[in-house]
Amino acid sequence: MFPVAVGLNYRSAPVEIREKMSFHPSKMKEVLRGLKNYHGLEGVVILSTCNRTEVYAATTDVEIGISAIKQFLANYQGIEEKHLNQYLYVHTLYDAVRHLFRVTSGLDSMVRGETQILGQVADAYERANEAGVTNKAVNVFFQTALAVGKRIRTETLIDQHPVSISYTAVELAKQHFGELEGKGILIVGAGEMSTLTAKNLVAAGASTVLVSNRSYEKAVTLANEFSGLAIRFDDMDKYLVKVDIVISATASSHFVLLPERMLEIMNQRQGRPLLLIDIAVPRDIHPDVGSIPSITLFDIDDLRQVVDRHHQEREMAAEKAEQIIDEEMLLFIKWHNSLFVVPTIVALQQKGQQIKELQLSRAMERLGSLTPKQEKIVRSMANSIVNHLLHIPITNLKEYATTNQGHLYTEILQNLFALDVEGENMRQVKSVNHHKAGHMFHGRAE
């Protein structure tokens, strides 16, 4: 059983194509069962996010499996397959495994190392399980990938370095106060940056979010989206006295908070600390506000310095993550090839024993009466010849089992020694080697 992956993402397809190719979670069970009915697919999972739609499958025939997935995507979404093909990428065998490892680890995401994708992969796998469309190969494939994703995040901390301005603003607030639950938070402005900030605040555990904007209606709309409270722009001062954190992101062309105003506010606060985070361009908060006692002020440049540093840290973490994936791929390949190599080695040893016993029987008949000692010597010599003869091919095959060519050498050995390795494993070895040979020939032709 071999893994394949067919899909498109933010690099291969524009948003209008990604929108057409997405699958709604509420229909996923029906979609998965429809996909599983296509010829050649033994187990399937569909990963559908705003940035990618990918079908992962286990198949006994790689070419048939890929063709089935492409037909399904074109038929289900009503797009001509010839048109769809220009946006699709295909990963087969171990490349498909590596691709899923990288996806789950966030290395294939628009924002390197982002956390959300791990949960999205887990949800996709769970939905496939619930629909009853996975099999043993898919289970191993996805369970291993999820474990790899968790290992990379644990060992590299790649997702601990925020790389968006709005997320970094929230992280600074968390570092300053610890947990955000119970803290009074005021967002000034109701544009896109304010929306992203509010979303990150709620995700970080903020329970009370106030929104103020010159257009009160826009403030109400944003506040309602996150179960917050809208306050009128002219009433902001009485809330500035109460809150702990202010994140300002208006489109104003002049300063919204001036030193004189904030001095009066701080007198009413009686020394209670206040964190101000200004992510607006032009700035909303006059820089001199930061020199007022008990006020901590960060502006957009402060946040960008943090983001730049975090980008560098993520790139370093990504390099370490790629090394971990190399390690995990070696383990996966070794395990997967062992499914084919071990039966071949057993068959080779059995053939050696059969030949030995046959030739010993003939030799004993010709030699006539032997003493026990002489018979022991003859048998020992026969064992030694067989063991020495098979030692090198068995040792080499075990070494090749850890490479991408493990299947190929397995079939060569089976053919050279005319081994009878019955069952599904043998058919799969032939299938994958024919697929590889086809790609090698195609590559030369180009």
Structure description:
This protein has 16 helices and ten strands. By secondary structure, the protein is of the alpha/beta class. The protein has three domains: 2-161, Glutamyl-tRNA reductase, N-terminal domain (Beta Polymerase, domain 2); 165-308, NAD(P)-binding Rossmann-like Domain (Rossmann fold), CATH 3.40.50; 328-445, no CATH class. Strand 6 (208-213), helix 10 (216-225) and strand 7 form a beta-alpha-beta unit. The longest helix is centred in the last third of the chain and has 68 residues, at 300-367. The two termini are 29 Å apart.
Distance between the termini: 29 Å
Rounded radius of gyration (Å): 32 Å
**Which segments are poorly predicted (pLDDT under 50) over 5 or more consecutive residues?**
423-446
Largest sheet: 6 strands, parallel
CATH superfamily grouping of the largest domain: Glutamyl-tRNA reductase, N-terminal domain
Helix content: 55-70%
Order of H and E elements: EHHEEHHEHHHHEHEHEHEHEEHHHH
- The count of strands amounts to 10
CATH topology of the largest domain: Beta Polymerase, domain 2
- In the CATH classification, which architecture of the largest domain applies? 2-Layer Sandwich
Report the sheet-strand fraction. Answer: 5-15%
- Average of the residue pLDDT scores: 86
Number of H/I helices: 16
Alpha-beta content class: alpha/beta
Strand order of the largest sheet: 7-6-5-8-9-10
CATH class group of the largest domain:
Alpha Beta
Please, how many domains?
3
The backbone outline, from C-alpha atoms, is elongated
